[in-house]
């Protein structure tokens, strides 16, 4: 056996396993699991659920939404009300009803609705020409204030904007994440560092 090649050893082992009974194959499987370390184990399946939720509680809303796309297990963990309720209550956003125990994701839906109402946009850095103010005159508009507030800064002609916690990049490479509610502007963070 020591002098055989890898291919010859594999053929012999495969032939032996095919001739073994089911109980003998289970014994071999247990022996292999004890000797060969498992690769790519999901930590959320091995840790207690409370610890997994504690780890997920440190994530910002954008990261939680990205975690929901990893697997079904991560999706069920990242959409739990225990995580989203804390994020809503930090801003004073309370539900106007009491969700039933069977209703899942009520706090996440509420968080999404509240963020959409904010209509946040990324702050723009003005060009050098815009810093110089020659003459300031009040601007009068013919449009009533009511129509202006309905249009809102987030509305564009026929183009649907992505919610703030999602970006159009499917494979993000940003190391400084811009969370509209928790973090400062990434440019300001870079200047401070």
From TrEMBL:
Spans annotated as Disordered: 149-193
SMART domains named in the record: FBOX (SM00256)
Pfam family, one: F-box-like
Domain F-box: 41-87
Composition bias, Basic and acidic residues: 158-174
Name recorded for this polypeptide: FBX16 protein
Organismal lineage: Eukaryota, Metazoa, Chordata, Craniata, Vertebrata
Gene: Fbxo16
